[in-house]
């Protein structure tokens, strides 16, 4: 009987975390289907088009920044419930929007929800899941995010094919945005059946309740050990400060974490995700084939994210990021060249190039920063460090959403994609020269890497002064 309860608890935890990723994936992708209609309906300038897409990230940044404080005060589960409610209201508000201002306000509210969920879902998994499968459950968030993106591309394609273009202009985009209520409601319902985080309960002095949950998840022997470890970790955390991240070794780790978060966003994948149909439309795709082409790219994302999960622990983080960033630079160079030399005849060639770029992203800079950033910090500082890196990630996400249409309008598509090629070259150099390999290394061994680098830098500096 104990095993049965344990299995169901783990499934619920994985499903709840997965739905949080699905919400993020849905919101990332759904606007790409609606924005073409919105641009024509409201005669949006490139800057305003970027604002309609990127405004959700404003709410996201604030949501991420507040999530730690609010979840420590009110509980992980309660704040995740708030995030689900925000997302449902946002989807309904977006679908019923009477003007651009209403739509933007609804999307900012959804951003709060996604910010809370993206920050807390993986934290919740790490605090609840059995140690033996914690890493795999953590990667489920990224996989469900990609599944959400892919499914939403197909929803957009289905809605676009459900009526005439005029119907899409008046009603269709509302259905696209309104479908977000479905994953939001499923997420909210699932949350009623999952336990509160044992770590939060111990922080609040509810030791017996926490132990009962740990026992139900892990069995008695592991539960005792987990409870002891959580109490020790909380004690260390309470005596620590974010200022520790400014110490020589940890300062370098924080720098790597921030740049991994930035490169996850600024190397061009989100430009394709947000503006895929527009990009394909600009080279002659029409009659909703632009939505089909984007859906194909979404399927490539799913396939290669699964491949990445299988390869990460075999090939290593650094090697995959180096391979991926170099391939992405080549594909972005080729995509820019297609737009420069023969945009009118791009067709299938452009799908192949973007699919190649997407596959390269999904085996490297897509999932690996989410896995590696928590790995490079000690337990007592991990939550603070990941929170800081995530704020940078959301900020970069906003910049890509906001400025991509402006860049394409002012510089042209070719030079915009060549700019992304250069960013990928910089990413490759960063990975090869600064990022350490963390595969099969304990947290203590990773800590020694930073201490060693800091010592060498100090020695070099004093050597020059001498």
From TrEMBL:
It is a multi-pass membrane protein. Pfam families: Sugar_tr. PROSITE patterns: MFS, SUGAR_TRANSPORT_1, SUGAR_TRANSPORT_2. It comes from the Bacteria. Gene3D superfamilies: MFS general substrate transporter like domains. Residues 13-439 form the Major facilitator superfamily (MFS) profile domain. SUPFAM superfamilies: MFS general substrate transporter (SSF103473). Keywords: Cell membrane, Membrane, Transmembrane, Transmembrane helix, Transport. InterPro entries: MFS_dom, MFS_sugar_transport-like, MFS_trans_sf, Myo-inositol_Transporter, Sugar/inositol_transpt, Sugar_transporter_CS, XylE-like. The chain crosses the membrane at residues 7-38, 50-70, 79-98, 104-125, 137-155, 175-194, 252-271, 291-313, 320-342, 348-373, 385-408, 414-435. Its main location: membrane. Belongs to the major facilitator superfamily. Sugar transporter (TC 2.A.1.1) family. This is Sugar porter family MFS transporter.
